[in-house]
Specification:
The chain contains 9 helices and 10 strands. The chain has about 290 residues and is α+β, with helices and mostly antiparallel strands.
Amino acid sequence: MTATHSHPWPIRWDLLVRYRYIETIALWEGRLTTRHLCETFGIGRQQASKDINRYIRDIGPGNLVYDTSLKGYMPAAEFRPRVTEGVADEYLHLMARNNELSNVFESLALNVANIEVLRVPVRDVRPEVLRPIMQAARQRKRLEVDYVSLHNPDREGRIIVPHTLVFTGLRWHVRAWCEKNQAYRDFVLSRFRDIPEILDDSRQGVEQDDDWNTHVTLRVVPDPRLHPAQQQVVATDYGMQDGALDITVRGRLVPYALKLLHIDPEPTLADPMAQQIVVENRAQLAPWLFSAG
């Protein structure tokens, strides 16, 4: 929800970030000290202590207790997340972000010891390329671009109408109407050349993109050829309920979701141990599996 004068955020944004950090570190590392905040946010010990005490008083009363032997705060037995969801992904993503920052700003100590994160290759996307794409998407403008692809490695002029940036887990692309193909397509950001030129308004927008606006559910289950005990291990790995994991995505994003899950779109692989999970409702996903749009 967007903050307005009549409905302001209940917590100042910079404080909310620190409160979330306090909660996440305390919950997942079991020990929080003022040093955590000092080194991560570049604040003094007095301010860090004030933030922790304010969290205890105003945000999560009873959530943290001071342990003299640990010389820090630990989560109480009745700990209940107040500004986080209390899921491991929050801590893992925080560590991943801190790891990325540490690689960029090597002088910062961001408490990433005992954590190693594989980094995907950095795609070369220049600000001067991205800015007009974003402007055109927000204002529904036609955009003249030079684009290369594997099918056409020589740059080719196109006119597109972008509407949404998408991160697939490995790279960024923009979903856009392509006047050449008279269809919505995915354009990889690192394949734009020169600086896109903003043109006039367009009638094409996200509302007309049927594949984008259609939501479908991927029903992921352990490969039935696995032994029942093996299936249970796989089900637990993926947090399945009643032996299945339902993931709802936009129709157009189905192929990317399958790639993230390392699921081959082919009906059956020879070795059930190869990917261990399969899509149970593959037939329902067929319209999006091989779409060129």
